[in-house]
Amino acid sequence: MSESLALVEPGRPLLDYLPVGLFGSVMGLTGLSVAWRLASVRYGAPEGIALGIGGLAAVAFVLLLAGYSVKLVTAFPAVRAEFRHPIAGNLFGTVLISLLLLPIVLEPFARRFAQILWVVGAVGMVVFAWLIVSRWMSDRQQIAHATPAWIIPVVGLLDVPLALPTLGLPPMHGLTVFALAAGLFFAVPLFTLIFSRLVFEPPLPDALKPSLLILVAPFAVGYSTYTVTVGQTDLFAEALYMLMLFMLAVLLRQLWNLPVCCPFRVSWWAVSFPLAASSIASLRFAAARTGILTDAIALALLTLATLVIAALFYRTLLGVGRGELRTLST
Fold it and tell me: How many domains, the chain?
């Protein structure tokens, strides 16, 4: 009981500790739902799995939105400081990316609502990307702040076109090309900058090590967005897919080391969406380039993403039940 009461300390604003980056859990759950939907089409997997995971994603989004709204009202200085932080500020993009992905899950049940969510997310993502890039170019930045989270604001633009094929909105070819071009263009210098920081500067703090897997996202999401935009898997799409596999092979070692290097924190959810996005890209590629190997890779990544996200979900619920959310959010 005493641990549960620690969630509300006298004199402290309610939920002031809740990190905006926890919306990454919604991204991971939604991505996993989409992956299982693709698996049901290609391999006949039960559709109920995708629906169940999608339902969890929607519930998680509502709860987190309510919780962060409370933080916004009761601890606005903490929200402002988080937004202005050179690393944490980029994680506000996770809210907007969630709005771009959830419509894929919600469309069969509430198309109009899904369309509204997508429009809000698309407009917000474009504005947020412009704002962050303007911030980078207006103020001198420190190389120590160049972490994988920097990828989120602009590479998040790659998520804009993903829901369009299912939403029944008017053709938006210009927007999809813009999102694809801006997302891939900025992925190159940002990846180079972050890679340079990782090679030549001190290692990332333990709390930020889960975010390393975000470096897979430009290639995984880039593949899906490119194929949605051009309507086929061509040589460039294959190159993105191969780069995704290579980066995933390099960074999976970091995933295995997480339980050793640092105790569980909600920041571990940073690994969820890159794994889900990699699974989606592999399932799409397996459908475009049929073969035993491509199917094996797709099924292996789907299994990996499912197991990791299930473990994250269980450990987070366990922490909430124990009254550890404040500790897990530090």
Answer: 1
